[in-house]
């Protein structure tokens, strides 16, 4: 089993740096096993292929940090840090070679020495090594300042010491640039957040609407107002004594509430008072029509009874129970009284003809009549002695009743005067004698 070295932690740091630069890990798989296999067997993609802002020098640092062979990685944090600082100045880490030591190449040298020939940098380096003077004729200090860091790539050459001084000055510049960039990012973030908040508020204002005031409107008007506001209407009904039938009692949500578009708004519509006053329009209707009218009022038909009536046609409503004008609870049963098309015959005998006529003309009877006079020596003239329909019987409406009325018999004729001489009274009695006819006499 291989012992632990700092190269393992630096590999993890390289993975983290890769993800910070590209926004994704160096290896992506369907499962942890797949990712682990890629860490062992496969090379990661270059960071610059995922983020064009990554420089070739920074790409070279990542390649070195993510080497499969730990011996080819950075061996300590100081060398990793040094490579990152060099990458900031465009100095790339050379590719891994089997026997070549790690050397930092200045990829900016061609630009600095452009026009002087390919051998110019090397000549300058040779001059520096042989004379101990830096390019430009300045002597290198015998004891360059040491920043206290262990330079694992330093060979003790004065040129490297000169590079150290340049790194320190560039580090200060990079720190300044970093803080300026941080301030710019914070300022930009503040502006973006404000714009996002304003946009979100405007979007919320555009996607939400206020529920209109619907109370007191008719159901049709309230439904139109809900649809015009970009909402979806629904309706419930209930009885209410203070709100007219068909008008809106309340809405849910209430008026003024802010809701999303296409939200449902439920309105409660009044069915009128909980008690219903029976109208007088039921009289004269057929049974079926009366039941329909009761259902419209929120009532239902009850028991059916029949009674006589002089005016109401057979099968039509005479009255109701409860009667018209009375208040009844919604849903109650109302009994119907129907006409049987008959009237009850009153008792007319022993009445005068005038009294009998008045009874037959009564609104509850309304029967026509005819008079038949019969001589009667026992009953006083003008008295009804008989009627064609029995008293207290039921007869069809409009039946003609024949009344038998007594009349006085004719007077007996006076006797004719006698031609026989008047009898004389006897002497003994003084009374007239009664002559007897003789046999054969007239």
Model description:
This protein has 442 residues and is α+β, with helices and mostly antiparallel strands. Among the domains are: 6-107, Transferase(Phosphotransferase) domain 1 (Transferase(Phosphotransferase), domain 1, Orthogonal Bundle), CATH 1.10.510; 211-270, 2-Layer Sandwich (Trypsin Inhibitor V, Chain A), CATH 3.30.10; 275-340, Trypsin Inhibitor V, Chain A (2-Layer Sandwich), CATH 3.30.10; 343-407, Trypsin Inhibitor V, Chain A (2-Layer Sandwich), CATH 3.30.10. The protein is 33% helix and 18% strand. The chain has helices at residues 6-22, 32-41, 47-50, 56-65, 77-88, 109-112, 120-131, 158-207, 219-228, 287-296, 353-360; strands spanning 133-134, 138-139, 208-210, 232-238, 248-252, 258-260, 264-270, 275-277, 300-307, 317-321, 327-329, 333-339, 342-344, 369-375, 384-387, 394-396, 401-407. The strands form seven sheets. It has a three-stranded mixed beta sheet with strand order 4-7-5, with helices on one face. The protein has a three-stranded mixed beta sheet with strand order 9-12-10. Strands 14-17-15 form a three-stranded mixed beta sheet, with helices on one face. A hairpin with a 3-residue loop joins strand 1 and strand 2 (138-139). The longest helix has 50 residues, at 158-207. It is rod-shaped, with a radius of gyration of 66 Å. The model is unreliable at 98-156 and 426-442 (pLDDT under 50).
